[in-house]
Amino acid sequence: MSKTTNSLFTHLQCVECGKIHDPHLAQTVCTESSCLSILSAQYNFKGDTPTKEELKNRPASLWRYKEFLPVYDEQNIISLGEGFTPILPLLNPDQYTERKRVLLKDESNNPTGSFKARGLSVAISKAKELGITSFSIPTAGNAGGALAAYAARAGLKAHIFMPKLTPSAFKTEARLFGAEVTEIDGNISDCGKIAHAVAEKNGYFDVSTLKEPYRLEGKKTMGYEIAEQLEWLLPDVILYPTGGGTGIIGIWKAFEELEQLGWIDGKRPRMVAVQSDSCNGIYTAFHRNAPRSEYKDSGFTVANGLRVPKPYADRSILKVLRESAGYAVSISDADILAALKELAAHEGLFIAPEGAALWHAFKTLSRSGWIKNGETTLLLNTGSGYKYLDNLTDV
């Protein structure tokens, strides 16, 4: 017998034009031809919601927040134990952390070694509920591995398109999980065009970043966890490595939902998007006060996940930065590698280059006074450094 999750999911709504979309059909982006913006899952927060205290006895995974996730039937949940990753204090670089509290949420503890497990767990679970059996995805690495793993767990098919310059660990991982991997001579935007064309031709469901609504729901659970793990007192600043931007949008969505639940007050963190100098369209748009980013790709970066020339949800990312009185920072590969080595040597953390960029950004913002003494800053490391060994041959 099927068992309900008691999900309070009611409908999907376009973030731009507000059009309502049916949650019982497979959806991608807004169906208004003049809009085509991202869809956001909406919930009935006046329904039978759990209490904060009830969470304490639930499994330590993102599905502890099942009422605020879109899967109706528990039999459709595809899980590998994702979520509830640790928040660690940074202790040793005293000259930078003195009089400041610096925390790192380490997403490398997730299945397949990255935060992408969150989004793909929820997306594949909901797709299974909707009867979808085959998927395509363009990826810089981690999302492809996560899709491959969750598709394997669900007995479904994954077709993955990644740049040839992607480190070999990502390709091997996806193939071991049984996915079909196609290497493309180009960047993730090139992969996206090919993945979409192949999906349309063969009837695969395209789970590209923010071109379907449910990866966002998985990513938002980082925000729920940050609040719960810090006893419902949010940090002053959150630094986030921003490629496609699902995480930064999702975390902000989580804080809005938690306030509707009455679990937090209206005080929010200042959100900071951190990008690579190679691909920093959001950084440029933010500092020009532009409503959208322009296409920017200067080629290879050691932080593969940051090489997203033009995020599909650029408007939403910039909106979060401005609503939160946040900021945008751009980091060179040399500084990313220096930060990666510093955190490894002083903290025992071998984190992804995308996460290491946050450490350099923190030092920059701290020296400038933008991050003030007495404030708490959280760095969100998105994955494991071990997958990037191909990029670290000169370290």
Structural notes for this entry:
The chain has twelve helices and 13 strands. The chain is an alpha/beta fold. 35% of the residues lie in helices and 16% in strands. Helix 3 crosses helix 7, helix 7 crosses helix 8 (246-261) and helix 11 (333-347) packs across helix 12. 52% of the residues are buried. The strands form three sheets. A six-stranded mixed β-sheet has the order 4-5-13-10-11-12, sandwiched between helices. Strands 8-7-6-9 form a four-stranded parallel β-sheet, sandwiched between helices. It has a three-stranded antiparallel β-sheet with strand order 2-1-3. It folds into two domains: 87-114 and 215-392, Rossmann fold, CATH 3.40.50.1100; 116-206, Rossmann fold.
Question: What tags apply to this protein structure?
Answer:
single chain, 395 residues, alpha/beta, Rossmann fold, 2 domains, 6-stranded mixed β-sheet, 4-stranded parallel β-sheet, 16% strand, globular
